[in-house]
Each structure stands twice: as structure tokens, then as C-alpha cells.
Amino acid sequence: MSADPASKKAKIEATSKFPSDDAKPNNDQLLVAVPAAQGNQSEIFKLDVDCCEELFEWLSIKDLHAFGQTCKRMHRIAGMYFRQNYPCAHIFDKFNCIYYCSTQLDGFTEFVEHINCYSRAMDMVELEKIGAKCKSLKEISFMTFDVEAIEKSEILSRIESIQITGDRLNERFLDLCPNLKRLLVEVGYSNDDHWLFELNKCPKLEFIKLTGIDMHIVGMERFFDQIPHIRTIELNWRFLLENRDAFLGYNVKLDKLIVDFTDNEDEGDLKLICPLLNQLYDRGFYKRLHLTQLASGVSQDTIDAMTTLRSFEALDIELENEIVWPVMQSLKKIWIDDFDGIDFTTLPSKLPNLQQIHLPNTTVEPALPFIRCSKKLTEIRLVYLSEGPFLNQNILDLSALNKEREKLAGACKVTIYVPEEIFLETKFASSVNYRLIEIKRHESMYSKIEWYLDSKESNVPN
Questions:
Q1: Of 27, 139, 301, 410, which has the fewest beta carbons less than 10 angstroms from its beta carbon?
Q2: Dihedral, CA atoms, 222, 225, 230, 236, nearest 10 degrees?
Q3: Which SS3 state, helix, strand or coil, does residue 399 take?
């Protein structure tokens, strides 16, 4: 339970009067506690918001779903908890059923906010059927989509985030998305860039991802006229270089610029783009810089070139070559997909302002130097864990980890995200709350793109 006292108080006040079974719940409230005066109610409905959240925290997602099928009222309570506490649980639509991994969650369809349909192509009829079931749906991801003969769409009119992977994006699609805030496009370049100049059809657009396009676009300056409210852009490094004059010549003020290095084959690319990125920063084009998808062939020269980047805050990297990591004062987030080439014993001293780190399939050992040395660290993501020191039979030794953290004067409290089975085994083995270490289930953390887009600064000492 991570909510602060003020937010908990707001929840309690907002839910002090429980609605009838037929009333529609507020999307931002967890429905709890029925006052005793309302009649002969089951004792469980007299629990306050904290008790309900604590109870649900001991359940697996499968058990939470089963718990929610006991009655209409409990269905809403469990469903609202699911919506608020499983932001990473992107649901998959399989044969018109709703799944998270191997768990069928059809009972939570009205609370599902993100549907992932990457496994197959879709048409408008299928999409509308999903929307009819998932009334809270805000985000959708799919491979290819048939947008021919579309006149209107109930579901797309309320969607706030769309991620599409396919051959192209038809601009007619944008006519149906007036409330779109995020558009993630991973389509291949097909000599059809007309839709880039139709983005004014989505006046609320704040974030756009264009990693599938890497060619020069004629009239690129007009692109920026379509997105006056844009706050974050993610793009391919080639696209940035090919259209550098347009980027340098336009007065855009972004919060974040995310540069994707997928399919980077030339070790000189990053060194070539560093001066351009610094020019853009000097012009006020962006406030924060993130680099993503740096591949395994990254060399020492490339790593050293990063030290010249201004306001460089987040890095997603895969390293196999052995390198000597330079000091990076500004780096706050690092997502590591492979660490064969990294000396973790010295890395914390090279990243003095690190706040969040994501580690791949591993034991707890690579995280220990950060627990012991990184004062400002608040979040460690261990998506997969195997047996080893501090982990025995799926039980994480929080007491030992807390003692390690306590040795570091002025250290922030660290939240460690772990798979659900390890979270539950550890919780049942030890219900003690530690001062500087806590764990949460992997599903409660945000997705990778949310990790990059998060604009909230951690409460860390200066």
C-alpha cells in the first residue's frame, strides 16, 4: 500500500456513502465500507479502505478475480482495486476472452483499461465488440488494423492511448480519435506519410512515438504545426538526423525527447548525433533526454560519448562488451537488458544521482551494490528472480536487505518489484514492515513506456 495519508483520507471521504448495487462507481474511487446504519450488511462491507486494500494485497490476481465473483458489491470493490493496483497488467484478448498471462479475467472486463491484441490483425467490428465489454478501456495495442469504410467509432472516440505495429497508418484512423493523448506508431516507412500532417485531428495529443520512420520527410516543418500541445516525442535516431534542419529550425518546447537506437549498426552513430542533441537542448527543444534500445555492440567510445549529453536522465541499454563506465552525474534511470559487460561493484559510484534501476533475469546479487551505495535510489525492478543469496524457496530476506540499506547514511527507502509468487511467499513469511526496504508485485509497476514518460521527481535528498 503506497498511498499517502492525504490520498487515503480523500478515498475514505469519497466512499463514505456506498451506492446501490445498480449505481455506477466513480472511476477514480475504490468502493468500500458500508455504514452500519444501512441495514443488515455482511461484516466484510464494514471494513474501511485501508482494510480492504490490505486484504487484497495478500491475494494473487487469480484469487482476487475469484473473490470478486462472490456478489455484485464485492465485484465492484475487487474490480476497482484491480484497476488501481495493476497498471502493468495489460490484458490480452484471446478468442473474445480476457486474459492476463494464463489467468482468465472475464469478470473484470468492465474494469480493464488496456487491451493488447498483438497476436492478430483486427477489424472495426472486433474492436467495437471489445469496447462494448471493456467499458473503462483507455488504451489499446494492436498489430494491423483495417480502417476502410469507417464512419464512426464509439470505442475509439474515448481511447486515450493507441499503439500500432504494422505496414502503415491511414490518416482516416485519426478522424475517430478526438481524445487521443498518446500515439505510438511502429509502422514501416511506406512512402505514405500523409497522416503525419493530419495530427491536428487529435487536439489533445501529448506524446507521439515514431520509431518506425527513419527517412527524410518533405515539409517536416508542417509536422510541428499539427501538435501544438505535444510534450514528449520518441523517434528513431536516423529520423532525427535526416530531418535535423526541421528540428533545429522550429521553436518546439518539449518536456522529454526519447531517441530510439533500434537497428543501430554503426558505432559512430551516437557520437554523430550527440552534437545535434546538445544543439537542440541549447535551443530549448527539450528539457530531458532519454536514450533507448542501445544494442549489445555498444563500445567504450559510445559510452564515453554519452557523458557529453546535456540533461541526459534515462538510459535503456544492453551490454555484452566489457567497458569501464564513466561518471554520469545526470542519469536518474537505467534499464539494463543484459549486463555481461558491466562491473556492478563500481557502477553505483559512477551514477551518484540514480533513482531507478531495472535488472534482467538475475539473482538479487547485482542489486546489492545499489542497495549499499546509492543513497537516492527509490526503485529496483527485478522482473525475474532465481534462487541465490537473499532468496530461498521464493522468500526474499527483507530483514537482511534492510540491514544492508541501513548501513548507508541518508539512504532513501527502496521499493523492490518482484514476481507475484515471490511477493506473496515473502509476505506470508514475514509481515514486518521495514524502514528502508519494501517489496511490491511486478504487476503494480508501470510498463516500460510509462517508466520513460513518468515526469514525477522522486522525493530524494539534494
A1: 410
A2: 0
A3: helix
By the 10 Å C-beta count (0-12 exposed, 13-18 middle, 19+ buried), 290 is classed as buried
* 354 vs 356: CA distance, rounded Å: 6
Tell me: pLDDT of 96 over 70: no
Length reported for the chain: 462
Q: How far apart are CA 55 and CA 445, in angstroms?
A: 19
Which of 231, 284, 282 lies closest to 258, judged by CA? 231
Residue 185's φ and ψ, nearest 5 degrees, are -110, 120
Q: Are 121 and 146 in contact (CB under 8 A)?
A: yes
Q: Between the CA of residue 63 and those of 55, 67, 259, 399, 431, what are the distances in Å?
A: 11, 6, 41, 28, 19
pLDDT at position 115 over 50? yes
Spell out the domain ranges in the chain: 5-85, 347-462
Map residue 422 onto helix, strand or coil: helix
Distance from the first to the final alpha carbon of the chain: 26
Query: In whole angstroms, what is the distance from residue 254 CA to residue 232 CA?
Result: 6
Q: Give CA–CA dist 18/133, Å, rounded.
A: 24
DSSP-derived letter for residue 385 is B
pTM assigned to the model: 0.84
Q: pLDDT, tens digit, for every residue of 44-81?
A: 777 777 788 888 999 998 999 998 888 888 888 889 89
Rounded to whole angstroms, the Cα distance separating 456 from 365 reads 28
- On whether the CB atoms of residues 141 and 90 are closer than 8 A, the answer is yes
